[in-house]
Amino acid sequence: MKTPAVWSALAAVCTLAAVAPSAWSHEYWLSPSTYRAVPGRPLALRARTGEGFVGQAKIFERSRTLRLTARVAHDLDLGQVAERGDSLWAWFQPVDRGGVLMAYESTFQPITVDSVKFERYLVDDGLDGARAARQARGETGPGHERYRRCAKTWVSGDDDHAAVARATRPIGMPIEIVPLAVPGRKSTLRVRVLFEGQPLANALVHAWHQPLGDAAALSPAAARDTMQVASGTRTDRDGVVEVPVADAGEWLIGVVHMVPSSDPVAEWESSWASLTFARPASGRGRTR
After folding, report:
1. Which of 38, 229, 234, 263 has a CA positioned 20 to 30 A from the CA of residue 242?
2. pLDDT beyond 70 at 219
3. Side-chain-facing half-sphere of 283: CA atoms under 13 Å
């Protein structure tokens, strides 16, 4: 058991969460310049962090990046072209209409969250195991955690055969939301959550939605940039959940899993996964 003095020293080098409980539960998502892959048309990639599409652009940090890839006919290493300190992470031109799956995996980062906020975070994200363990040990102090990000985005294409092969095959990240069909095609999307390559049962999967294009520009900011969760459902024993995504626009699906830390810098380690995609009004038409 670490002494208060040890935790005080660790807290000095960790980032202190100074926001509301639900606001600490920051999602982290990839934001492409378009959700439609057109051969020869440049496609830019950025990342954002926040809650329900309210967030800020993230600067690319090579030292925190383990993976930044684009899956087309073959996997491309976008980390080789990303520039440190730039909010525009990478761009390239698709050469076919099979769609593009892009993925980012980060290193772990330590953080200390005060007790009230940490407890709220465990409740909001359905982290029942960690919450029960803290209660069983009588822990009421701050949460000492390290976290990592595993984000994906799907940019659609017209070649159905290639799209299925690219969108539904796991990338191989520590935690991953794997679509079981091409995202954006139907009013529901079945996904499987994998942790260390195995189905993750009873994980709370949240979804957020916002308009795209002209609809986004015309919608009031309070309605467009919403922090309200569109849905929240737990995975079954096979790690599968069906997410309702009937509305046209941009969708963000997220899940977090927490286990005891394998590093003495923290007591817990969390792995965050996200998936973004767009659903056109027709289910298959153009998106921005």
Report:
1. 38
2. no
3. 6
